[in-house]
From TrEMBL:
Top-rank taxon, per record: Bacteria
Any one GO MF annotation of this record: anti-sigma factor antagonist activity
Pfam families assigned to the protein according to its UniProt record, in alphabetical order: STAS
Protein name: Anti-anti-sigma factor
Gene3D superfamilies found in the cross-reference section: STAS domain
Cross-referenced InterPro entries: STAS_dom, STAS_dom_sf
Organism ancestry: Bacteria, Bacillati, Actinomycetota, Actinomycetes, Mycobacteriales
STAS domain ranges (all copies): 6-102
Amino acid sequence: MSTPLTVRTERKADGQVVLLATGEIDASNVADFAEALNAGVADSTDVITVDLSAVDYLDSAAINALAPHAESLQIIANPVLMRVLMVSGLTELAKIWPATDL
């Protein structure tokens, strides 16, 4: 059974938009993730942070939601996600750090 996805957006004191996701992102819930991501990008004039440190799994649907915005994102990823992010080529398009590097 998959872990339910929760997504919330915050604005830091300096105005930076941060999207925080928890759980798993797959075809069954990617619409919620993509909607929050699209809104965050539209609401920001700067790069937004996507915090995936509490995401245990993502599939190609999540990669497809992230890719169009890659140049506007900095992603903090759970280390278990790093391989799929590298194989997908997303690490070449967006700034991505494993959560343990922070």
